[in-house]
Structure formats: C-alpha cells, structure tokens
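Action item from last meeting closed. Structure (67 res):
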C-alpha cells in the first residue's frame, strides 16, 4: 500500500476499513477498536446508507479484488 500511495503522490481513502478476513468496521469507534493508535487520523462522519462493503478493482486489468 505504501508503494501505491507513493506512486499516486498522496494517501488513499476508503469508506470501509478492516483487516483481511475480518468484518469491515462501519463507524469510527469500530475503526479505533480494530486499529488502536496505529492510524494518524480518523474522520468522524456519516458514511451514508450503503450497507455493502466497497468494491476494489485492480487498476491494471479491471479484475475484482474485493467486494
């Protein structure tokens, strides 16, 4: 991920957060419980009404990575 951020020249943001194989956190409190103080900052804001996790695609070939 660090390499991708460096190539893009900025941080990447997602509407969901989880450790591979675990359920995604759906609010900032859950994110803090999962990741503790390892994150620099968490935006405390509503994420809308979407109940599905974000789909992530491989930018090089369009294949679905997660979703």
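Sequence:
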């Amino acid at each position: 991920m660090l390499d991708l951020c460096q190539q893009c020249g900025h941080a990447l943001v997602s509407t969901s957060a989880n450790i591979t194989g675990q359920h995604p956190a759906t609010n900032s409190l859950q994110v803090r419980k999962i990741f503790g103080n390892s994150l620099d900052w968490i935006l405390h804001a509503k994420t809308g009404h979407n109940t599905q996790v974000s789909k992530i695609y491989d930018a090089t070939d369009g294949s679905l990575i997660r979703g």
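Note appended to the action item: Helices lie at 2-8, 28-35.
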